[in-house]
Write a structure and sequence with these properties.
alpha+beta, three-stranded antiparallel beta sheet, 16 helices, 452 residues
């Protein structure tokens, strides 16, 4: 009968078998007598054996009640481990929350204690932290730069405000009164005198290199940020130029000078030599500034390089536009000009000892005959066979005690300077390179400190 058969699970194989509690017969196939009977709840084999008093079962399922006990203990063990893990996570979470609370309480206590200190002590602590972070020299230089500009603006604007009521008209030989825009224009004009002269100082490589070699200046001045300083000054020059020019236009439009000139501000600003050169200067600045953005430099360095040499026309026009500009710019212009002449006509010429193309896009070049240098310094490299006046900076990747000087250059798209250099070297069309340097970098002073 169907009630004599039971359905059981063989734990060793995970398969279902059937056992007859009366006859002790077992089979893997479902008995025909159970075909029409409803399935009963699956039992454990140990229960079936205990109920029938028989030990007969399929060979793979022959076991005893110990198997059931082991299964029960195993399940209890897994459940116990899960409970222990959950409790451990909860305990760890409680510990972390407690640590966060303690840290927050400690931070608040420090803030209260810090607020009760004298302001001199708090200032000294702030200066020490900025010095440890390497930001103090930048803050000092930037603050001095702002102070100098403020003083120069106030001096020039006050000086020209006092005399703006009695000014000679250049083409009428008479006296007129100027508007309130005139002192502002003159104030920003003096700022342009200072900043356009100072603009050359950060990019005077020889001067920066010599300052790097002097420990006092290398520690007190942010010499490694010279290009960043050059960019900041250039942005301010553009801003000051806009204010200077707009104020002159408004001055022409609102002063009594218009009554004597017989023309509007547009005609006067383009007919007078000072106004004409000022407008041309703005056009030249737009050409240089638009090609100086980082995306342009990365995608087409040649466009940046050659458009930036409009600075020659820029300074030539400035010497004519600003009647006293030469007093501000004579020293920086002489220093920069001498460096450029020496770089173009008296560079180091070094032979390429070895080169290799390292995957995926690195060009490794080794040079012979390099002058002494320090770790961390860099070179400007020129290949006349590619571009006579084009120089590119690369960090020296070899040690000073090595026999050759190595550089690793990242190559860009086909037609770029580095990719073309590889082609020239591979075709043996280039055997020497012109070198300008070595130039200083902050990392060259790594051995001057006990902790890095």
């Amino acid at each position: 009968m169907a009630s004599q058969w039971g359905e059981y699970l063989d734990e060793s194989t995970g398969c279902t078998y059937y056992f007859n509690s009366v006859t002790g017969e077992s089979t893997w196939e479902r008995p025909p007598a159970m075909a029409q009977a409803p399935q009963r709840q699956r039992k454990n084999f140990g229960q079936a054996v205990a109920a029938s008093g028989s030990s007969l079962a399929p060979e793979s399922a022959q076991t005893d009640s110990k198997l059931e006990k082991r299964s029960l203990l195993r399940a209890q063990g897994v459940q116990g481990r899960e409970i222990s893990e959950v409790q451990g996570v909860r305990k760890e979470r409680v510990d972390i929350d407690e640590l966060v609370k303690q840290d927050e309480a400690l931070r608040r206590a420090k803030e209260v204690e810090y607020a009760t200190r004298p302001w001199t002590e708090r200032l000294a602590g702030w200066i020490k932290r900025r010095q440890d972070e390497g930001e103090l020299s930048k803050l000092v230089v930037f603050s001095l730069y702002i102070i100098i500009n403020v003083i120069l603006y106030i001096e020039a604007s006050v000086r020209h405000a006092e005399g703006s009521e009695n000014v000679d008209v250049p083409f009428k030989n008479t006296k007129v009164s100027l508007s309130g825009f005139f002192p502002v224009a003159k104030g920003f004009g003096q700022l342009l005198n200072f900043n356009c002269a100072f603009l050359l100082v950060p990019v005077s490589r020889g001067l920066v290199r010599r300052l790097h070699d002097i420990t006092f200046f290398s520690k007190t001045l942010p010499l490694g940020k010279n290009i960043q300083m050059h960019k900041y000054i250039a942005r301010f020059v553009f801003f000051a130029s806009c204010v200077h020019g707009v104020c002159h236009y408004f001055n022409w439009a609102t002063s009594s000078m218009q009554e004597f000139s017989g023309a509007g501000p547009y005609k006067n600003s383009w007919e007078l030599p000072k106004g004409l050169t000022g407008n041309i200067l703005m056009i030249v600045m737009l050409i240089m500034y638009n090609a100086a953005h980082d995306p342009v430099k990365r995608s087409n360095f040649e466009m940046f390089w050659y458009s930036h040499h409009f600075f020659i026309l820029f300074y030539a026009l400035l010497f004519y536009h600003g009647s006293v500009f030469w007093k501000w710019a004579i020293a920086p212009v002489i220093i920069y000009t001498l460096e450029r002449v020496g770089r173009e006509f008296f560079p180091h010429r070094l032979r390429v000892a070895e080169f290799s193309h390292e995957p995926p896009n690195i060009l490794h070049v080794e040079l012979e005959g390099m002058p002494s240098y320090r770790a961390g310094q860099y070179l400007f490299v020129n290949c006349p066979e590619i571009a006579r006046f084009e120089w590119h900076p690369f960090t020296i990747s070899s040690a000073p005690e090595d026999e050759t000087t190595s550089m690793h250059m990242m190559m860009f798209h086909k037609g770029s300077w580095t990719r073309t250099l590889l082609e020239k070297l591979s075709a043996n069309e280039t055997t020497t390179l012109r070198i300008d340097g070595p130039h200083g970098a902050p990392s060259q002073h790594v051995w001057d400190y006990n902790t890095t």
